Amino acid sequence: MQNNDDTRCGYVAIVGRPNVGKSTLLNHILGQKLSITSRRPQTTRHQVLGIKTEDGIQTIYVDTPGMHKEQKKAINRYMNRAATSALTGVDAIVFVVDRLKWNHEDQLVLDKLQHASCPVILAVNKVDRIEDKAELMPHLQELADKHDFKAIMPISAQHGHNLKELETMIEGMMPESIHFYPEDQVTDRSSRFMAAELVREKIMRQLGDELPYEMTVEIEEFKHEMRPKGPLLTISALILVERQGQKAIVIGDKGARLKTIGQEARKDMEHMFDAKVMLNLWVKVKGGWSDDDRALKSLGYDYSK
Ligand SMILES: Nc1nc2c(ncn2[C@@H]2O[C@H](COP(=O)(O)OP(=O)(O)OP(=O)(O)O)[C@@H](O)[C@H]2O)c(=O)[nH]1
Ligand SMILES: [Mg+2]
Known about the structure:
The chain is 32% helix and 24% strand. The protein has nine helices and nine strands. It is of the alpha/beta class. The protein has helices at residues 22-30, 74-84, 104-113, 136-144, 163-172, 191-207, 244-251, 256-273, 293-298; strands at residues 8-15, 48-54, 57-63, 92-98, 120-125, 151-154, 215-227, 230-241, 276-285. Strand 5, helix 4 (136-144) and strand 6 (151-154) form a beta-alpha-beta unit. The strands form two sheets. A six-stranded mixed beta sheet has the order 2-3-1-4-5-6, sandwiched between helices. A three-stranded mixed beta sheet has the order 7-8-9. It has two domains: 8-172, 3-Layer(aba) Sandwich (Rossmann fold), CATH 3.40.50; 191-298, GMP Synthetase, Chain A, domain 3 (2-Layer Sandwich), CATH 3.30.300.20. It starts with 7 loop residues before the first strand and ends in a 7-residue tail after the last helix. Magnesium ion binds at residues 22-23, 35, 43-44. An essential GTPase that binds both GDP and GTP, with rapid nucleotide exchange. Plays a role in 16S rRNA processing and 30S ribosomal subunit biogenesis and possibly also in cell cycle regulation and energy metabolism.
């Protein structure tokens, strides 16, 4: 921890509806993969901190689940709550939207932001995919009329467009303060959490449209050993689904899909943990977990966080 009067430190919430590119933005700013991403909405389920300390400024980014209207299940209520709770106690908010598409869920997020007591930057993401650039300017003007944004910035989280400018603006908003985290810490999440998320990401990416949203991953074993050739991690993960049919989908023909999921997750884990990884995956049916508060809690969906 630093104790210098010149240091600055603060929190920045990254919010928006599902699939607009919030986690991609966090990862790009941090320069490493901390939060999982996929082309499916509702990929992020928990708050994930990304901590960046540079030139005496510590910026603590809070990635959040996409806010959405559908609240039928306990897990959806959990996700919306995890997103909304990030709006309080932060020094800045980055509200991410997808190009020129403004829908009722963007409006839902904006309604929540009206109560925020800190400045809001609107980041119009995925501009790399706008074909007719002439459409952008009038749209930005329309967005400007919706709220008193501190700034409206067209960005591409994936290609890095305008991200330096965005970061500089955010850093300028961080208050004078001692640093809350050691300089080399990049997240608040445990290695077990990261391992579970990487498996979930590969499932989200592999399963495309037949994807069971009703799927979660629990780490049962996470063992670290020193071997003559270097460190070895043995990780056993349980993939929980709601129904038998979903189990068959995750496993795939003769186990082919589960094998690919395992290979891809292991590759990312070896990179993340800088160790050899032995990954064991199992799939189990546990009906009703996604709408059961107690089951959610035991699976790490903790409302107090
Ligand atoms: N072309 C393009 N695609 C992007 C950009 N940013 C994100 N994406 C893609 O958009 C999809 C969603 O990105 P995520 O970062 O997972 O979105 P999210 O807002 O975190 O989504 P949830 O966690 O579900 O709320 C992924 O396929 C990304 O690769 C961008 O700047 N340009
Ligand atoms: Mg996300």
